[in-house]
# Entry
Amino acid sequence: MTSKSPRRGSTSALHQAISCFLLLAMFPHAPQTQGPLPTPPAAQVKSEPGSKPPAVELRALLKEGAEVHLKLAQTLTSRTATVDEPVEFVLAEDLQVSGDTVARKGTRVLGTVAEGKKSESERRDASSLSVRFDHMKVGSRMVKLRGQAAATGKRDAAKMVTLGILFGLAGLAAASGKKFTIAEGTPATAYVDEDIELPILAPKPS
# Structure
């Protein structure tokens, strides 16, 4: 009885092992399924808890020629008022544009004496007394104003005389003897000299 040669079986097994080794050598790693890409850092930025977006400043256009109602914040007399002397007014009411408030009542308004004594050393009273409006400061913005207010009338040494004040609003001044007086609180009207945008302090009630 003839037996099979063990050498042939061993050679076949050896060939199979070498083939497997070569396959593994050619493809050392099996392909892997790629997971989702990481989110870019910029996309992960979130607002801090409690943070608020920056507020947008609302503005209104105050047009040239708009009336500005004022009142005198000091008393002027023909005995002391000197040409180019500064004069102070205040807003008599909130200044509004289409119902939106852009300046509060009491805001300072500056002017100058346009007619009065030529100098402080002059002994005689001024024969006329008037004030010119200059500007009003609202926040960081300067609102230019125009207009002039005057005290006119006749003086009588024997009695008190009531004088009309040409302020655009009804106002009164009094003269006793030789002195003209424009009292503190006398109303006046100035006019905006050029268009200007102002922040809205209080919007029109809805």
Notes: The chain has one helix and 15 strands. The chain has a mean pLDDT of 76.
